[in-house]
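FAQ: What does the model actually see?

It sees only this:
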Amino acid sequence: MAILKFRIYWEDDDAIYRDIVIKHQQTFLDLHHAILKSYAFDTKHKATFFKSNDTWQEGREISFEKYEKDYKVDPLLMADVNIGSQIADPNQKFIYEYDFEKSWRFMIELINVDKEADKKLEYPTCVKTEGLGPVQYGSQGIIDSRLAEMEEKYDLQPDAMRDGYGEEGDDSDSEDSNESEEDSYTDSSGDDF
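And it is asked to produce this:
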């Protein structure tokens, strides 16, 4: 049994990604749910995958369901298609689109294939998270554990500002700076200029 590791980039910022491992015989529906969970999105909207080439051109569609749109070729259905059946290249790529109105797009790239499963993991699962992901419904969801992670990672805690740095608009040091400017205009004889 092969274990596939995919890196799922957010289209708008490739520094934001999630690494997901999945068994090759699991379906695109399993991958769909793993992506949504890793980016903290709900499951209320339409979704589809496209098989892709190295230049990110959309190929065969693998859809959640058959939607009311014109298809040149009927899409495959996520629940019916094993991921391994669509891997033609060791660097296989897919495009994932979620919520057609908002058009959340993610670029998926196969980055590793292992021959053995880790018995400690339940597949599929996210094994690496990089960057603060997009918020599905505006900024309302940003005040959560992800903000705490960002504060910790970038040391944004209020105590980090104590080393002599005031907050913007803090005038407590301005009087001292004015006095020092006046003192600097005195020559060695003690006469002011």
